Prior knowledge:
The protein has 407 residues and is of the alpha/beta class.
Amino acid sequence: MSEKCLAVVEINQDLCSRCYVCKSICPYEAIKADSTGKVEINNQDCQVCGICYSSCPSAAIKMQYYTYDNLTEFLKNAQVKAKNVDTLVLMCRGNSPSTGEVQDILKAQGLKVNNYMALRLPCAGRVPTDFVFEALNMGVKNIVSVQCEDPFCRYKEGTKINTRRLAMAKNVLKQLGYDDNAVKIVKFSRKAVYDVQACVGCDKCIFICPYGALEFESFGTPKVNEEKCTGCGACQLVCPHHAIQVKGFEFEEVLGRYGKSLAQLTAKNKGPAILAFVCQWSEFSALDNPDKTFQGKNVLTLEVPCFKSLDPVHIINALNCGFDGVMGVVCSAKDCKLQEGRSAAERSVAALQVSLKKLGLLDRFTLYEESPRCAGEFEAKLDEFYKKISALPKREVAVEATGKRTK
């Protein structure tokens, strides 16, 4: 692993008190103590969930992403930009697509929040309790933590840990005179949703679902078992009529987003236009701050909930619409947060590559595995792909980038 990978999560041995809280709480058993009691992180097993960072009582763990200072700075900037905002909504990536829908989620839970600022995080478990106190001290009146349901936490124990922390924080806040509802917890996980009228009963979704979450119904639309559905999007990928989709990642929604963005991208400068489909868990910085990451380049990133929902149709359509290159960025098999059914995604990409080769477009697509623990690798690989596409001859595009689906 590169030095940048090794520097994303570190333990300051001078500050470490050998309390082993981090070791006991790590969901991936990536933290070990050697024969002398020294605590070390195995970076190859680490998933950069941040749970150890947020639990360390002596602030001995250093992390590149979402530190206490980062979160506080975000809050300060958001308060300056927004007016009359009194609620901070903390949302896990797993339940919050980049398109938002915060109010819809809260409304379904019986909460009406109009003036709010939303902060997306990879996991609720990485939020230090100190930040909750600091947010209230900075003038935030209400904090709502929208956590994944416990069985569907992408980092195994993140929501359970944060639920316990916030429960203890509420007891302290009550003693300090804060309202009982100053901190609220909402459990929500994204599920597959059917359009009954569009379903033709082919049952492809039932066979492809790696979690057995779709149940056969005689002469009717298959039933979604929400106790098993992880919202991975594998079913959406195989449905020929888009009758089952994951909200926030609907086919037409994604199609429209990159179709409408192409003209804006190419208007910035004369460089090639690149579309990057990025798994929510494979990269943090580019998804959180794309303007900074892609400064000077015509690059659009679109999140996908899992490798299994990377639709080959979008890749071919984007190239036909006028994008000069398309990237797919996914987790490795070891790092995948939804490992079941990965072989289906790999077969889908293999078939895609065959089609791209026949169309003479294979050199305009690349797929690679990424991890947030390898800081800077995404930018390096993007630069490499950008230079490669820049060197290719310009193509004549027959399809106008209107967001219409190509046949």
